[in-house]
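Replying to the earlier thread about multi-chain prediction with a worked example.

Input:
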Amino acid sequence: MPAKAILISIGDEILYGQTLDTNSHWIAGALDSLGIRVSKKLTIADTREDILYYLKESEDQADVVLLTGGLGPTSDDLTKPCLVEYFGTQLERNEEMLENIRRLFKKAGREMSEVHEQQADMPANCTPVANNMGTAPGMWFERNGKVIVSMPGVPYEMRKMMEETVLPKLSSMFIKDSIYHRMIRTIGIGESALAEIIKDWEKSLPPHIKLAYLPTMGSVKLRLTTSGESEQTKKEVQNKIDEVLPLINKYVYGFDDEEIEEAIGRMLKTRNLKLAIAESCTGGFLSHKITSVAGSSEWYSGALVPYSNQLKNEQLKVDNKIMEEHGAVSEPVVLALAKNIREVFKADVGVGISGVAGPGGGSKEKPVGTVWIGYSDEKKTVAKKFQFVRDRNINIAYSVVAALNMIRINLDKD
Amino acid sequence: MPAKAILISIGDEILYGQTLDTNSHWIAGALDSLGIRVSKKLTIADTREDILYYLKESEDQADVVLLTGGLGPTSDDLTKPCLVEYFGTQLERNEEMLENIRRLFKKAGREMSEVHEQQADMPANCTPVANNMGTAPGMWFERNGKVIVSMPGVPYEMRKMMEETVLPKLSSMFIKDSIYHRMIRTIGIGESALAEIIKDWEKSLPPHIKLAYLPTMGSVKLRLTTSGESEQTKKEVQNKIDEVLPLINKYVYGFDDEEIEEAIGRMLKTRNLKLAIAESCTGGFLSHKITSVAGSSEWYSGALVPYSNQLKNEQLKVDNKIMEEHGAVSEPVVLALAKNIREVFKADVGVGISGVAGPGGGSKEKPVGTVWIGYSDEKKTVAKKFQFVRDRNINIAYSVVAALNMIRINLDKD
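Result:
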């Protein structure tokens, strides 16, 4: 049996919908890679009653309980006093943690106050966990073979603490179950259509290989999960992947952790090509996605965001007459954007995007969500129209996925 | 007493850390604005046992239970059969929902299959909730004055369903508690330093006004919460805000829902100025933030992302000699970028960013996280160096926050 973990995020701001909890997402992924199974995630209020109640419930139900939040220096942070009460212990000032906090303040050239010194007060029964990114130390508690860890809610402080201390300690304490995941990543097809294509293959999967469909904006990931990481298991899963690939090949852009922008980077790098982008309605988001890939400067020239027609004309030589006649959101305009950005930036592949992201700017002929995307390389310049139907930010995000898929398809054709 | 809600997200992919749950975040905010208090959020596995157990527990603990996920057409989706079992009912094909699904397929010009028709099979005791963005209808159950609603996990399908049906119905059923929130938004100061400055004011708050510090990347929001929306309550909270503002004025960029990029848009629009951006290491993310604001074309010209030195020179006239002598990540380069983008794009305010986002490209003098930001307007051109210490994507995000704050400060000075 794999070790079971429960994650508790503490904070009214999460329950009020004011702060998005990314911590438990990150922790879940980190524990999964160790082979520790997260059986439940909880978000609870900053109240003494709830913290004490769910500490007890979680300690009963799981081997590992990880808490985030409520450790700040301010008076609305209740996690530490609750842990003191829960374990029936008291606070003691820890000199090592105090020294850490002092060092941090010195490095940042800031004054230290009483409130910061109090952050070095630790429950007597815990092993303090050093915080190298902030002032609130973590706390590691152990009893009856179970582990409870409290960490700050600031994401990068928690992550560093997990990576440096908590994950290695958990890994040495609990036997790995080695969950084995493989992921087939598709784009440009919906969940149901994909399920229809592969339904016979799905039926052929043995019971110990579990299939999940993970749809995200514009793409669907197929996840195969099984236990154990023996060579035989791996081979069996790979055989199943090899069986399904011919059915869905034209939608598959990569495997496992590879994002579509990384796959495009890989394709461009292999072919020694450079990409340039002229994006209007997406406002820089495609360029951001591309440059989120480490090392993208090897295959990426840069982008122009010509938000006005004047810039489209002056910077990218889009004919004013064409814009007057067809409008800025039109086939000839994105063809020109894609072709000209390639020339102006001396790149090999060019992309042009122009659309109506909304909420304003729509018309009967071109309602909100109308987006034209152009692609240009040495051999061809093509364009395609998309009609999205959501709000501004989702239309922008979908447009970027569509553009990434268009780059992939056209590079594949070459 | 306000109505109490529990949110349940169903899905192994969330527990494995493969999908970030943004649904419960959005729902929490939507319920909060109605005055329905979310007392707990749960994420549980796609298993019959867990779904049945937590349905029961949540129905006991709350007035409203909202479930998302597990309604897809594929075989790993268990929510609907579990609800049928939980309520001891059976499935019946619903003609209205079937008609909706047919209409959707017709609109998209796609073939419909048996698997899609099955999505119109509804538990006999529920009121189906139409899904106008996808094929899986929602289900509204009521008993003993309590409400259980099941919705798809696809974010925009769930949102539309909430907005069109679920929120109005909940609002009419449950008396509003009218939680009253005000938010003071600060940037450029840490949580502890802010707490130190306002500690006397914080002590002066009456017990029925609750203060929370909500730190996010590079900014801290102060949230004041109280019950009731009488004019007197609002005035009392406003008085407390007026008291604290003189102490922290230089860090405050806005109130309530206004994001820093919206605040900048407001400032630029009022002054009839246009912004242009030349961003290298941030790769388009600043431009994306700016253009995520609806109507930004009124005060935004556009951006150039000159990822190579060649583009910095050819497109923005940055002297090659300067880049050779000082490097691309340097004060004279961002001064030139900020000044020249303003001229080239004929804008009033220019911003230039150049840095080492990482993981590669660092040196002893310019380690990963070194970022120069330049600002230029009619009266001045200035630059500032920042040193971030995280990984690529966090360095990029912090750089964008720093740039936004630099625009704010310099516009304020004018």
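Chain A touches chain B through 101 residues (CB under 8 Å).

Feel free to reuse this layout for your own posts.
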